């Protein structure tokens, strides 16, 4: 904790060495967040670097009585959402007044590792991926997501529904691929 406070103090004085050390210390944490919102590692790195720029530019606003990690995490999430918004005009964005939730027991009973699931989430279109992350991982309501992304609540629900449907298909297909590869290995 004391070491972190010294790093922050050095960063506030524009000490490049301390900035580099802070960046390295929180690189993995920030990258994991950005990867959930990005389509690939290159895009995630771009978002993360913009996020760290915001961290360094706003470090004077950080309340040292509060935990640092959630503060950095919130900046990375907001930067990811900002990145999404800046690319919004390129995205397909359907608006439905109501979308039904799919049942969780519709998914096959198999264990996917984190990298497999992350890869599937990254394959989702930006609009679906962003809403899925904000709802399923960050815990925002559809109303909050709609306000953050400047879309309707119906669009948020629709994008979540479509993200879940696409993920369901990808998971089902990955199960079939696993079944086929194990059959091939036995033959």
Give structural notes.
It is a single chain. The protein is an all-alpha fold and 187 residues long. It has 2 domains: 2-86, Rna Polymerase Sigma Factor, Chain: A (Orthogonal Bundle), CATH 1.10.1740; 104-186, Winged helix-like DNA-binding domain superfamily/Winged helix DNA-binding domain (Arc Repressor Mutant, subunit A, Orthogonal Bundle). Helix content is 72%, strand content 0%. The protein contains 8 helices and no strands. α7 (142-149) crosses α8. The chain is globular and about 50 Å long.
Short description:
This protein has helices at 2-12, 16-37, 41-58, 68-86, 114-123, 126-137, 142-149, 153-186. With 187 residues, it is mostly helical. The N and C termini lie far apart (57 Å).
Major beta sheet summary: none
CATH class type of the largest domain:
Mainly Alpha
- Helix content range: over 70%
The second-level CATH architecture of the largest domain is Orthogonal Bundle
CATH fold name of the largest domain, please?
Rna Polymerase Sigma Factor, Chain: A
| Mean pLDDT across all amino acids | 83
Shape: globular
Q: Would you list the SSEs in sequence order as H and E?
A: HHHHHHHH
- Please indicate the percent range of residues in DSSP E strands (runs of 2 or more): under 5%
Look at the helices and sheets and give the structural class: mainly alpha
């Amino acid at each position: 904790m004391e070491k972190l406070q010294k790093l922050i103090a050095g960063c506030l004085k524009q000490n490049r060495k301390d900035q580099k050390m802070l960046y390295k210390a929180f690189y993995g944490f920030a990258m994991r967040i950005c990867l959930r919102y990005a389509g690939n590692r290159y895009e995630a790195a771009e978002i993360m670097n913009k996020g760290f720029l915001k961290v360094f530019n706003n470090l004077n606003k950080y309340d040292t009585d509060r935990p640092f990690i959630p503060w950095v995490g919130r900046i990375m999430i907001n930067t990811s959402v900002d990145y999404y918004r800046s690319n919004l005009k390129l995205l397909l964005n359907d608006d439905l007044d109501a979308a039904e939730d799919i049942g969780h027991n519709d998914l096959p009973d198999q264990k996917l590792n984190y990298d497999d699931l992350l890869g599937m989430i990254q394959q989702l279109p930006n609009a679906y991926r962003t809403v899925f992350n904000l709802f399923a991982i960050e815990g925002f309501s559809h109303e909050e997501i709609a306000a953050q992304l400047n879309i309707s609540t119906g669009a948020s629900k629709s994008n979540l529904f479509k993200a879940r449907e696409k993920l369901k298909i990808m998971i089902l297909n990955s199960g079939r691929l696993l079944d086929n590869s194990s059959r091939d290995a036995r033959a």
